[in-house]
Each structure stands twice: as C-alpha cells, then as structure tokens.
Amino acid sequence: MAKGEGAESGSAAGLLPTSILQVGERPAQVKKEPKKKQQLSICNKLCYAVGGAPYQVTGCALGFFLQIYLLDVAQVDPFSASIILFVGRAWDAFTDPLVGFCISKSSWTRLGRLMPWIIFSTPLAIIAYFLIWFVPDFPQGQALWYLLFYCLFQTLVTCFHVPYSALTMFISTEQSERDSATAYRMTVEVLGTVLGTAIQGQIVGQADMPCLEDPNGSAVASEGANRTHSTNSLRETQNAYLLAAGVIASIYVICAVILVLGVKEQREPYESQQAEPMSFFRGLRLVMSHGPYVRLITGFLFTSLAFMLVEGNFALFCTYTLGFRNEFQNLLLAIMLSATFTIPLWQWFLTRFGKKTAVYVGISSAVPFLILVALMESNLIVTYVVAVAAGISVAAAFLLPWSMLPDVIDDFHLKQPHSHGTEPIFFSFYVFFTKFASGVSLGISTLSLDFAGYRTRGCSQPAPVRFTLKMLVTMAPIALILLGLLLFKLYPIDEEKRRQNKKALQALREEASSSGCSDTDSTELASIL
Question: pTM score, two decimals?
C-alpha cells in the first residue's frame, strides 16, 4: 500500500509544471520528523498530584475518626452507627460506576471532559463535609442527619475523585510519564493522609474528651459538678471537630483550584478518529470480561480491605485495647509520615524490580508487624516502632494499585483498539468493589462491637470488646493480605508484557498520526493541482 501511494505521488508530480513544483515542493519531498516524547514538567506533575489530596485528607479523617465520633461524641448507639457506616460506604460504592457512566456520556468541552465535574462538585462537597461533623439539636433524628450528609458527601467527592483518577490516562500518552506522575500523586496523597491525621487528630486531641467510668467499678459519674464538666467537655470536643472540618474544607478548595489551573486534559490521537462513542453497558461488558483487570481488582480488593479494617478500628483499638487514649492520633501520624517518606523508595523499587515483585514485598511486609501487635502486651515504645514499620507497607498499598491500573488499560486498548471512553469505567469499578467491601467490613465490625458489649463514652471496655478489636486490627487483616497475595499469582502483566504493550501502543499512535498527516498531504496536493 505504501508503495502504491508513493507511485501515485510521483505520477502526480510528473504532471505538474516546473514553476508550480518550485513553489510547492512539499508533496514530492514530505519528510516526517521523529515524534518527540511528550514530557510533563515538574510543575505539571505537582499540580496533578495536588489534586489527589482532597480525597485523601477527607477520607483519612472520616476513616480514622468517624466511627469514634459517632459513638463517643455524637453519642449514636452502636447499631445505628453501623448502619450509617455501612450504608454510607455502600452508597459511595454504587455512586462510582454511576458517575463513571455519566462521565463516559459527557462530551469534550473547552475545559476537557473531566475537569467540569471536578469544578462543579467542589463547593457542594465542602458544605456536606462540614455538616457531617456538626451535632444537631434534635437527638431523635441524629442518625438520619449523619446518614443523609454522609451519603451526600460521598456522592460529591466521587464526582471529584472518579474523573481525577481517570485523568491519569489523559495527562500524557507516555507510559513512563504517567508512572512518574502517579508516583508524585501517591506521595502527595500520602501527605494528604498525614495532613488529615495531623489536623483532625491534633485539633481533636487538644479537647478534653470526657468518658464515663464503669458503673461496676470503683468510680461512678456523679450528677452534680462532674455532669456539668462532662457536658462542657463534650461541647468543647464537638467544637474541635467542627474546627478541624473547617481547616480540611479549606485545603480541599485550595487543592482543587491548583489542579484545575495547572493540568490540561489531552486526547489520544487515535481516539479522535472514532466516529461514535461506545455505549456504557457495552463498555462495561468489555471491561469486566478483560481478564487482567478482573485479577488485579480481585487481588487488591482483599489487600485494600485489610488496610481499611485497620484504619476503621485503629482509634478504638489504641484507646481501649492498648490503653493509649491520648496517643492514638500521634501513632496515626507516625504511620502516615513513615508512608510519605517511603513512597519514593517504592517507586524506585517497582522500576528496578517490577510491579508484581513490589506487590509481594511491600504488602506482605505488614504481616510480621501485625503479628507482633497481636502477641505483645501494651508497650508505647514498641507500638511506635511497629507504627513506623507499618507505614512502609501502607505506602506500597497506596502506590501500587494506581500504578498498575494504567497498565491494564493499555493492555485493554491493544485488544480492543476501537473501544474508547472506557477509562472512567476501569477506575470507577475498581473503587466500587473496594468501597463496597469496606462498607461491609465496617458495618460488620461495628455490629460485632455492639454484640461484644461496647459502652458508649466508656473510659474502658469489657474484655470481649478489647479482644474483638484486637482480632479486627490484627488477625483479620493478616488473613485478607495472604489471600490477596495468592490471587496476585494469577495476574498476567509482568515487566516483559508491559514492554511489549508499550511498543505496540507507540506503533498504534504513530500509525494514527501518520494517517492524519497523509490526509493533510492529500489535501495540500489537491489544492496545488
């Protein structure tokens, strides 16, 4: 075909007068310059990375503190709290594919296809987030209040995070640039969890959180001055939660503005040639039948669930099982700081040894420390050492899923070269399965605490509650991590496969660009003739 095209060009040039050829020699002397790699500046990567902070700052504050806030500050009974946590997470899970569907139907605008979702969801999300941490004056409807605004916030933050996650595929066509930007993003997201932990934990930790002594013990809360002090302390704690919510909401807005101003969406060259967008359900059927994607999300489903169990119950575990009521926010900060500083280490490791190896080494490194926590007696120094070591594994759990999803999407594009607009489906359904499973786990864990005899605002808890918390934070996550690592054995995309996919995709892009250049050259030749 190329030879025939060259012969036609030569014949056409032979029919042209010499004077015309001197004016327009380009048809006979078309030279294609080698396509330069699309490099992202450090500023672009940082602006993109900052966009991941709002989801992590708010998610960390809710994940670590919402359960203890509902039980001990808002004084919601454990059964209602379990319903709020489960329904909120389950609703959050269902909104991900729903938003992914809406995004796939969105048309490209001057700002792109994804950016409008981020812009318009931000102001509503911060209002809903602030109201989650507000204690209404009507005790009978408190559970409905928290359920309503928790679900509303989860919907709005999904409208921010799903398009932001899919934006990974549209900031560059170079796989190496996307991996580098993902590493920047993961570093900032872990830093966001540090901010969420530090702001929420340190502000709330300054308040004098009241508790009620065990009625069967040596002290009983009195009706006089002690009750007045308890009421004032409770109000002070509620105001501390509101202050922390205001600070976090401000960070949310600042990060969203930086993302919108500093990042520009880019379309794939071959995507613009597609005549009609694929329907959502056909795209969903293709995505869910893609073997590497199913194996990847199944493995990360169990490992993510393990870390979410630890996250959801860590505050209660430190407060009641280990007895570190005034130290749990500092322990959380130690975990997140350790994770932040080790993200670059894991980025180097996966580049040097491969992503599958990084999964096995990084996530399994948490197991020995969880076993140590399960077996040891309460010791603050040892707990801090375990917290720092556990942060190393948390960093790997943060980085690897988002670094491996683009590889699966690239593999899908090679097998389905005419199926475009499916990127939001890949990301949204990964988040859907993870969130739904975490909602089930949090609901079950809170119900199990209720069955074990959890006492709201108690200074201590019965032995069955302390044992249940230890199982939820140690043995259950260990079992989930081991099961997830076994499933990763079935994941087929290793480093050799990634290199092959990279070369094939580059050839596809060059072919699309060449097709566009050929159309332009033909138009110029026709105008000269």
Answer: 0.67
